[in-house]
Structure formats: C-alpha cells, structure tokens
Amino acid sequence: MQIIVFTLKEKYYAIPTEDVEEIVKEMPHTHVPKAPSWVEGLINIRGNAITLINLYKLLSNTSETEELCYNSIIILKNNDKKVAFAVDSVEAVSEIDSNDVQMTDYANAKEVAGIIRLNNKMISPISMQALFSLNEGQA
C-alpha cells in the first residue's frame, strides 16, 4: 500500500494515496462564520469550494488555540465529496506492507489506525473512514 507521510506540529502522520486527490501549496481561504474551530474556511480549487480543515485542531483533544502554520494542503476525496486538510508539510510518498501497521485499540484515538515504523520515525496512520464518520454533519 502506498501512503503520503506529512507532519503536524513535529509529529508524523500518514494517509493512503488512494484517498488523495491532489496536494497543493498554502492558499487563501474564506472564513465561515459559526463553523467549528477546526474549520479554517473555504478554498477555491478550479471553481469548486472545498472545506479547509485544520487537521491538528481536529485531531487534538485540547482546546489549544495556537495557530498551525501550514505549508501544504492535501485534498481528499470521499466518494463524491472533497475536503482539504491543512498540514505543516508533506514529507514523502512511501510504499509499505499492510503488515507494517501495528493496530491500536485505545478508545480515544479512533481517527488513528495504528503505528508505522518507517525510516526510524513513528508515523500515525489516519483512518479516513473513522475521521469522516466521526465528524459527519459537523463540517
């Protein structure tokens, strides 16, 4: 399986490339009034308005208000819907075996599917299915 490795606040995360539509550089966004704190706003990709999510705030269990200084945006596709994640930086595209993922079973991290050891780094693979279903109707 192929994954995209990216960083959020000096931690490494991964998502399967099959969920990714494209990766773009930071771009201006339009604020959405009364949106959840993890919604940065809307971005315009070739005439399509896509919700830009601050993935750090979404995954964080704290009420931390420190702003993420992101450099990249990962556009994800989920069936016919698209969503954009603001991330610090995209580090690599890597090939891994599904046996390389050590599954986790702690209840507070449903969005994190486990741990991957890759190039002496601990990487948390994000479960897109869990992330979309946990936050369905909140974006």
What gross morphology would you assign? globular
Helix content: under 10%
| N-C termini distance | 29 Å
Strands of the biggest beta sheet: in what spatial order? 8-1-2-11-10-9
Radius of gyration: 15 Å
Report the major sheet. Answer: 6 strands, mixed
Number of helices: 2
- Structural class comes to mainly beta
Strand content: over 45%
What are the secondary-structure elements, in order, as H or E?
A: EEEEEHEEEEEEH
- In round numbers, the mean pLDDT is 82
Low-confidence stretches: none
Q: How many strands?
A: 11
Structure description:
The protein is mostly beta strands. The protein contains 2 helices and 11 strands, in the order βββββαββββββα. The chain has helices spanning 55-59, 128-134; strands spanning 2-8, 11-16, 20-25, 39-45, 48-54, 72-78, 81-87, 89-95, 101-103, 114-118, 121-125. The strands form 2 sheets. A 6-stranded mixed sheet has the order 8-1-2-11-10-9, with no helix packed on it. The longest helix has 7 residues, at 128-134. The mean pLDDT is 82.
